[in-house]
Known about the structure:
11 helices, 2% strand, disordered C terminus, 64% helix, mainly alpha, two-stranded antiparallel sheet
Amino acid sequence: xxxxxxxxxxxxxxxxxxxxxxxxxxxxxxLMMECLVGKVAINGSYRFNESYTIxxxxxxGLINLNENGENSNNIRDMILVxxxxxxxxxxxxxxxxxxxxxxxxxxxxxxSNEIIKKLDDLFDGKFDGxxxxxxxxxHLVRALISWNEMNDDWLEGIIKNFKTEVxxxxxxxxxxxxxxxxxLSGCLMAYAIKNVGMRSEKLKNFCLPLIDRLLSxxxxxxxxxxxxxxxxxxxxSVRNIILEAVSYTHLRxxxxxxxx
Length: 260
């Protein structure tokens, strides 16, 4: 309850996750759960803050980190997951990305079909009422949990589905396209995280023309309505995510940008 700046409170929340990483400490986990749905003091008033919620989720996930990529059926883990999914379903927190990130770290590389099904039941095709970017985090988390599914054939399927979904939307500025782009970018980012430094030519050959296409769209001056402003705002976010994904797969510590 001390009146510290909220950025300091966020840093403190993350430090708990680092200090107690993989400890499964029940007391600290319960503390992070309270922070996850709690409000933070900003300028003397308490309010929900997205960064604070995400930090709480990351910290909770780190404390219960799935280090070995095992498919855990630990009863306590499942109870924790049910609480996190309940927070999302009941909108107990204004921001759902925090609970998603907690689940991600708890089950990363586990290939847990049970967790995937629970996420699908909650999110798949049911994004009304959620922020647009939640689509990105849902597919990012889903792919990171289904770690061993991510290979070149999986990537080929993601690209094929993306092209099919885009072709079905005739208006190039329809907000539905943002959902399709966020789904793609979440999958590409997960693939890039798994393949850091592996120089995926398949990913690069698909992404670079797409990035050029997104840049050309963003330059078009159609900012006459709120929907158009929203469209281009999210399109810029998608472009940045895809750029990062390509850079991750081509990362080399000793190379310069010119070498890439």
